[in-house]
Automatic annotation (TrEMBL):
It comes from Pseudomonas amygdali pv. mori str. 301020. The chain crosses the membrane at residues 34-54. This is Methyl-accepting chemotaxis protein. It comes from the Bacteria. The keyword Metal-binding does not apply.
Length: 167
């Protein structure tokens, strides 16, 4: 009887241990499934964050490329719309400043070339007037020279006639 009781106690103890083991094993499986689910969720969140950051950067970089192409095509009014405050926004602001400086320089050169063209036109007009004046003076000088030559000839004739009359 004592033996039967011992066996019965061992079987109850074994049954209790088996129940405890099953409970712990089930808890361990549940914990493992929770960890796997959390890892999957974290992976998906990281993937979402990566693609969100990539998309934001890509849109900003595409905007920068579009503006640089427009600037290269001669549209100096092109500017990048800056909505963020990151390093790419610093680059965009730098590009906007550079485009503004180029536009200002080109505008200044345009005004200067217009002024230079105006001065050149006025100088051309002045040179034309000076040439006309010089031509008129040359014609008058030639007339004076002709008159002097005629007077010299007349004086010479008078002198010759006077000399001939005096002899």
């Amino acid at each position: 009887m004592a033996y039967g009781r011992s066996v019965e106690m061992v079987e109850r103890f074994q049954s209790a241990l088996q129940g405890e083991l099953d409970t712990r094993y089930d808890a361990l499986l549940l914990q493992r499934e929770v960890v796997i689910a959390m890892c999957v969720i974290m992976g998906l969140l990281l993937l979402y964050a990566f693609f969100s950051i990539y998309r934001a950067l890509r849109l900003t970089i595409d905007g920068l490329l579009g503006v640089t192409r427009r600037l290269a095509d001669g549209d100096l009014s092109a500017r990048v719309q800056v909505s963020s405050k990151d390093e790419v926004a610093d680059i965009a602001n730098g590009l906007n400043l550079m485009a503004e400086a180029f536009a200002s320089s080109i505008s200044h050169m345009d005004r200067t070339s217009y002024e230079l063209s105006d001065v050149a036109a006025r100088l051309g007009t002045s040179i034309g007037l000076a040439k006309q004046s010089m031509n008129a003076q040359q014609a008058e000088t030639e007339q004076v020279a002709t008159a002097i030559n005629e007077m010299t000839t007349s004086v010479a004739d008078v002198a010759q006639n006077t000399e001939g009359a005096a002899l």
